[in-house]
Amino acid sequence: MSYEYDYTLLEKRIDEKFGNQENFAIAMKVARTSINMKLNGHVPFKQPEISKAVEVLEIRSEELFDYFFTRKVKIA
After folding, report:
1. Could you tell me the domains of the chain?
2. Model-level pTM?
């Protein structure tokens, strides 16, 4: 089963800490397009990427689920 995730909270944190996705991508040592693809749900985040993002964004471990695993709500 595949899920779609809501990265709104993550995007807000990226803006707070880095100002934009490009600066976040530099801190993550990946291409900006890679970050964009992940935030738009085209490519999933891998565990090492989540770990690195938690580190550079200073996300507390108890908040991790909220940032990376909140499912999108589908309205029928």
Report:
1. 8-68 (1.10.260.40)
2. 0.90
